[in-house]
Amino acid sequence: MIIDYKCPNCAANMVFDSDTGKLHCGSCDYEEEIEGYQKTYESFDTKFHTASYGDEEARQYLCKSCGAVLVTDNHTAATICSFCGSPMILGERISGDYAPTKVIPFSISKEEAEKAFKKWCRKLKFSPKEFTQGNKIKEVVGMYVPFWLYDLRGQGEAQFHCTRTHIYDSGDETITETRHFDVYRQVDLTLKDIPADASEKMADTLMDALEPFDYSGIREFNTPYLAGFLSEKYNYTDKEMLPRVTKRAEQYMDEYVASTIHGYEAVHCKGRDYHIGQLSSEYALFPVWMVYYNYDEAEYTFAMNGQTGKLAGDPPRSIPKIATSVGLATVLFFLVFRIITVLLGGPLL
After folding, report:
1. Percentages helix, strand, coil for the chain, rounded to the nearest 5?
2. What is the pTM of this model?
């Protein structure tokens, strides 16, 4: 089933507007609230589901606006017709086991994302000048990325060897006294809403770098939020992603335990034993602007948090700029060193 949203005034396609949080018709400016929005949709001829491709490969769909045949891979949940630009939501990809429960809507528009990216490029001190001009953007694509949100319970214990040093003078001698302590901590934590992206197409490091998302903006999932954006269903189940999120939970537990140990000069972990169990998980869609940038016959991929504007990616480096900066830092260090030497009575040269 293809889902689209037609304007009741002019029958043009409506899309989600990140500025107003409503469905918006670009033809007549009609707006429709999303919360509680309900509509009955016609399903298209099912022969287009499997006309040429297997269920686990790709599928064909008819665009209801222009009649073009579109081919999507088996993980696409929302797309845009490449012929007429009409938004298309593939209903069976967001139903049943693939129905999200939560969504963070886009709050940054495409124009704002492109402007912010160019501003970010201009601040890159060690990238080539041509790159920092930000004028070779190939494409900016809004995409809802599938995430699992976990509630976990972490229990366990950790042992530490800690030292506290006291230095004092005794006669003509300076005494250093070091005291040793064995510190034990037992922990029982509930960790809520730990995110893990469930798309095989998105690099984990890139998605992790976009965090944190502001959960105060999370909403109950409603299909109109997808109108005008790309979206994918998850590639990995919550059980398959659990080992990865468990490692993150262990880091959070380490940070919490470390925050409870005070008053020592040195703290060394002798060992820990954690047991982490899954309490619950929710399937959510998070907003990401993907920025594709052409430079020096190569394409660079960057990601922007579609809610907060945080950018992530690896820009090219300029070797001459880096060498110049290192050289200036070396000269500055030498000058400061010589000035201090002279002030202390040393030779000028």
Report:
1. 25, 40, 35
2. 0.82
